Every structure is written in structure tokens, then in C-alpha cells.
Structure prediction request, 589 residues.
Amino acid sequence: MVTYTAPINDMMFLFEKLKDNPHYCELEKYKEVNSDLAKDILEQAAKITENLILPLAKAGDEIPATFENGTVRTPPGYKEAYKKFIEDGWVSLSCDPEYGGQGIPKTISAFFDEMLSSSSLSFKLYSELSIGAYNCILHHGTESIKKKFLPKIVKGTWSGTMCLTEPACGTDLGLLKTKAVEQPDGTFELSGQKIFITSGDHDLTENIIHLVLARTPDAPSGTKGISLFLVPKIQVKEDGSLGPRNGVSTNSIESKMGIKGSATCVLNFDGAIGYMIGPKNKGLGSMFTMMNLERIVVGIQGLGISEIAYQNALNYSKERKQGKTNNSKTQNGTDLIIDHADIRRSLLNMKSTIEGERALSFWLAQQTEVSLHHSDKKIKQEASDFVSLITPVVKSLFTDMGMEITSDAMQIFGGYGYTKDQGIEQLYRDNRITPIYEGTNSIQSVDLVFRKLINKDRNVIGRYIKSIEEEIKKNKNHPQIKPLAETLNHYLKIMINFTVWIEKNMKVSKDDVSAACNDYLKVLGLIALAYSWLKVLAVSYKEMNTNKKFFEDKIETANFFFKRVLPRIDAHYNSAISGTKYIMDFKFS
Ligand SMILES: Cc1cc2nc3c(=O)[nH]c(=O)nc-3n(C[C@H](O)[C@H](O)[C@H](O)COP(=O)(O)OP(=O)(O)OC[C@H]3O[C@@H](n4cnc5c(N)ncnc54)[C@H](O)[C@@H]3O)c2cc1C
Prediction:
């Protein structure tokens, strides 16, 4: 079975030394959130994820969620664990105290998301969409809806879902058919079918609050005619108590490659009573409040699964002996595989990516908090622009790297990785959904290039590039960091050329741009990781005397990243700008 130790040291390092966004530090509501509190939360979080939740991963893979006689049951152990999970207040961690939450910032709760993803993604998903639903209702619900639904969601006794997908409507939400007909009392009756709904039904909570996209009969076609509705599984009376069953039923659950403990449901809505959330025909915008935050969390899922895969590959490589290394000093017998150059390369590829990703997501957590809570509108907007630019990068890069890392971890285990005994192959299978759901990674890259990059109004990419250039400038006279800053400068110039190439081709060949989106996202992602590493390096040299071993490790890892990972940019750029002649003209037989 896989083992897991939450990387609290690295998390605390970021929390204490990399809080470099002055606007985040200005936020009054988090003034009391100091290092002691962060450490306390992370230690408690480590305990519950390492001891209670980690064993559920294997249990849920062996005995998946089931559907029998109209009832969905979660795997053995989930109910007891969920009870403890909500009693200890983990669902409420980042929610607003007005609704019973603990008001902890994302600079800490994102670490908890990572730990949960490492220990069991299936278990995590039962509360993850609750936080998504909470965010959506908080931003778009009326006061009475908020009062009625949020306290129970925050407590964890009710959970949430996000219902977009239908049989003929996946990526293209303009095709959705579910109908919502207004009733004389102002409620709506929803009819239609939603598929692939995560935690659409289960036995962990008293009620499930579905957030459903549907069309009113007079709505325009396409995405301009979509509204958002709150539809409880069990109706809720005025005083907040439970009423009769609503017209939502489970048709079936999916049999899947991974995350088998998570119930992925087909839901039928047959005249189910719902309440409109936000303005009519603007439902997609409201749903995006939920999806944008959720996309960051999906990126963190990829990071969490990468971390546990790395830890287990590292441990195994320190135990397994095979062959002799080039410079072996072993007289009789063989060397540990961790001494082979290629295994070391693979482990460092994982480690340098994971730690860079963690630093980047910490930066993003600060920006997100500023974008949500800063009192200055301009500062808020600027932070929101950065969040919007980097969200598809985090979602796609972290989850794609999750595939590479879980595959490489399996490789380090050799045949024992492919067979089930060690549990490594499950990480590969569990991670495989992350590049698909919450908008496929292709769609993330299209969103980045066609919507976010070309935002001329606020020149977001220009401002992001400028902030990297400033960081490079700050380090250009530092004797040890200078060479790495120059390397980043070199690759940043390539990214700038790539951006200009996209802007130019947008006018002449959209296919060329479409075929380049994925590469552009990877280039921006690698630059963003290097930018994070540069900040980590500056702190590492400054703080060296306080913890030599820790900071030397950081410096070595950063050097590996700049020499062995960052140059991937050359391949992405050169491949992308070769155009589409051999793509679009090809005749598939
Ligand atoms: C386990 C699981 C859990 C899920 N949970 C939920 C949930 O809770 N709620 C929910 O609503 N949905 C959920 N989904 C659905 C998921 O979000 C969709 O599967 C996903 O958005 C892709 O839609 P699709 O499967 O219909 O693929 P399609 O949209 O048919 O896409 C097929 C392929 O075409 C590509 N493609 C499509 N359009 C374009 C384009 N314009 N440009 C370039 N490439 C394109 C896609 O990237 C993909 O590779 C879940 C799915 C699974 C498997």
C-alpha cells in the first residue's frame, strides 16, 4: 500500500517566507492568521489525511461506490470517516463565519486541498463540490436562499453538485436541453437528464443541493439562453427543515477507470422544483464563479497525486537494489536504484515540478484572496486578471504533469508498479480524470489563448511579463542567482515571441493558433514555475543560515529545474510555430 507524509515543512516555508503580495498582507480579515495558526491547522490536517483518509483510497478502489434499488452507497469506511471529517469542521475551513465557517484563507486551505488529493481523491470529491456550490450561492443567491442553504452546506450535513453535462452536451454547453418552466409561485419545474454528475447521489449527507444549468421555454438558443437553478434532492421547508422528496432520481452510476470510490451519477429531473440563482439567461456566468475556483482545485488535485506518487517512488528507490552504477563502489552485490543516473533524473523531474507547482499555487492563492476581498477596486481587478490568466495554466499543467509523474513513479517500481500490490498504478488511474473534467485541458488552452491572452483592454499578459522581468532584474546582480535569472530571461523572450506570433496569426490563420494553444499553455506554465522558483531561490540564499539543509536542497532542486525542465520550452515553441500544413491538409483514411 502507498504511504504518505504531508509535506508540512515545504508548506510552512511558503506560508512564512513567500507571502510576497503586499495587497494580500493588507487584508484585514486575515490579520489574525499567523504562522502558529497555520502550523496548527496543517498538523491537524496531516493527521486526518495520513491516518483516516489515506486507507480509504485503497478501500474505495477495491469496493467502489454501488447503486442498488435506486440507492447509491459509498464504499466501506466512507460514512464513518465523513462523520468525523465534518465533526472536525474540515468542510467549513475556508467558508465565511457568517454561515458557520472558519474564515481560513486559501493560502492555507489550498494546502489542505493538496493533502486531501494525495490521500484520497475519491473521498475528497464528496465535499469538494459542496465548496463549489457554497461559492456559487454565496455570490449569486438571494439573502433568503443563502440563509436557508449555506449553513447546512458549510456544516457538511448537506452536500453540493454541479450539473452541466448531458448526453449530447459536454464541452459545448450551448447544446444543453434541460428545461425549466416557471410556476405561479415563482419556483421552476426542471425536466431533463444530467450525466457524469460527481457526488450526484450518495449516503453521506441528509440532503444534496444540485446547481443545475437549464433553459426556460422562451430562452434564446446557445449559451445566451442558459439559466442556473438550485434544486435540492429533498425539498426544504421555509423553516429550513426537510420536506418531501423532490423530482430528482438517480438513473445509474458510472463504472470507471479510476476514482472508483466517487459516485459519478446519471440524474433524472422529472418536474423537480428549483429556484433560479442569479439573473435569467445569465446562468453560465454564475456557474463560472464555481467553475473558475474549482479549476484551480482540480490543478491542485494533480499536484497532490503527484506528491504522493513521488514520495512512494523515492522510498522504493532507496530500498530496491538492481545492477551496478557507473561509479559503483560496491564490491559484492548490486546498488540501490536511487544511485542510477536515470532514476535520479526522473525523481528530480518530479520533485522540481511539484515544489515549483506548490509555490505557484501559493502565489495564486494570495492573488485569489486579493481578487475576492481587497477594498480597492483597481487592485481587486488586477488580481482577478492574474487569477483568470493563470487558472487554465494551473488546471492543465498540474494535471498533465500529474500524468507524467504518476507514470514515471510507476516506471520506478518496474513490474511491481504495474501490478496492483504497491498501489502506484491506482494513482495513475485516479489522476487520469483530472485533465478531462472541469473543461478538458484542450479547452483550457483554447480559453487561455482565445479569451485571456487577447484581452487587449487590460493587457494582462503584458503586466504578467512585466512582473517577471522585475523579478529577473532584482536578481541580476546576485552572484549565484544571476545565471538562472538570465536563463529565465532567455526563455521569457521566447514566450514573448510566441505571444507576438499568436497575435499575428490570429488575424491570418486561426487553425495555426488553435493547434498552438496547448504548446503556448505549456510555455506559459513552465515560465510561471520558473518565476516561482526564482522567488524561492532569493529567499533560500537569504535564509541559508537558518536551515542550511532545507535551503541547499531548494537551491539544488531549482538548478535542476532550470537546466533540465525549463528547456522544454524550445520544443513547444518550435513545434507550434511550424504551423498546420501537415495537420489540416492531412487526409485521414
Ligand atoms: C468522472 C467524471 C466526473 C465528472 N463530473 C462532472 C460533474 O460533476 N458535473 C458535470 O456537469 N460534468 C461532469 N463531468 C463531465 C466532464 O466535465 C466532461 O466529460 C468534459 O467536460 C468533456 O465533455 P465530453 O465528455 O462530452 O467530451 P466532448 O465535449 O465530446 O469532447 C471530446 C473531445 O473533443 C475535444 N473538444 C471538444 N470541443 C472542442 C473544441 N472546441 N476545440 C478543441 N477540442 C475540442 C475535447 O477536448 C475532448 O478531447 C464528469 C466526467 C467524468 C468522466
Q: What stands out?
A: The chain has 19 helices and eleven strands. Residues 377-412 form the longest helix (36 residues). The mean pLDDT is 96.
